[in-house]
Specification:
The protein has nine helices and four strands; from the N terminus they run H-H-E-E-H-H-H-E-H-H-E-H-H. The protein is mostly helical. The protein has one domain (about 1-185). Strands 1-2 form a two-stranded antiparallel sheet. A two-stranded parallel ribbon has the order 3-4.
Length: about 190
C-alpha cells in the first residue's frame, strides 16, 4: 500500500523528469519532423479519462493530417490515408507516445497502469467497472500492452487492466517496464 500511495508517484516524478531531460533531443527531433512534414501543431491533445474519472488532455506527437477529425472517424485502421508518412514511422517506433512523459510529470498519468480510455469508452463500461479501473492513474504502458496489445480482444484487455488495479506492486511495475522496453527495442509491434 505504501508503494501504491507514495512510492509509485515518486518514481513517476523522478523517472519522467529524467526521461524528459535525457530524451529532449529525441523529443525536439520528433517535433521538428512533424513540423517539417505537416506544419503546426506538432502535438495532439486528445481527451482521456484518468484516475477517479477526471478528464485530461493526453499528449502525443501528431501523426495524422491537421484536419483528421473532420475527414474521418475517431479510430484509425492500418493504411488510414489521414496518417502522415512521418506519422506511420512515429507510430511504428512508438515515438509518438513520448510526449506522455509530460502527462506523467503533471500527474495525469503514471508510467505503468491501464491505458487511458476516451470519455466515450469509459461511459460504455458498467459504472462499477469504470470506477474500479479508475482507482489508479492510467499508464503509458500496462499489463495489456505487454501481453498482446492489439492482438487482444477488448474484453481480455479489460480483464488484464482489472487484474493490474487489484494488485499494484513495485515488482509488477518494474516487470512491465522491462518488458515494454524489450518490446520497443525488438520492435515486437503485435505486443507494443
Amino acid at each position: 500500500m505504501v508503494y501504491e500511495v507514495y512510492g509509485k508517484r515518486l518514481i513517476d516524478l523522478v523517472a519522467s523528469a529524467i526521461g524528459l531531460v535525457l530524451l529532449a533531443p529525441v523529443l525536439l527531433w520528433g517535433a521538428w519532423l512533424v513540423w517539417r512534414h505537416d506544419g503546426r501543431p506538432v502535438l495532439f491533445a486528445h481527451p482521456r479519462t484518468g484516475q477517479g474519472g477526471r478528464e485530461f488532455p493526453l499528449f502525443k506527437f501528431r501523426s495524422m493530417v491537421r484536419n483528421a477529425a473532420d475527414i474521418g472517424p475517431s479510430h484509425t485502421d492500418a493504411g488510414d490515408p489521414r496518417i502522415t508518412p512521418i506519422g506511420v514511422w512515429l507510430r511504428r517506433t512508438s515515438l509518438d507516445e513520448l510526449p506522455q512523459l509530460f502527462n506523467v510529470l503533471r500527474g495525469d498519468m503514471s508510467l505503468v497502469g491501464p491505458r487511458p480510455d476516451t470519455p466515450g469508452q469509459t461511459a460504455a463500461l458498467p459504472p462499477e467497472v469504470a470506477a474500479r479501473r479508475g482507482t489508479v492513474r492510467p499508464g503509458i504502458t500496462g499489463l495489456a500492452q505487454v501481453s498482446g496489445r492489439s492482438g487482444l480482444t477488448s474484453e481480455h484487455r479489460l480483464s488484464l487492466d482489472l487484474a493490474y488495479v487489484s494488485q499494484v506492486t513495485f515488482a509488477q511495475d518494474l516487470g512491465i517496464l522491462v518488458r515494454t522496453v524489450w518490446q520497443v527495442v525488438t520492435r515486437r509491434d503485435a505486443a507494443w
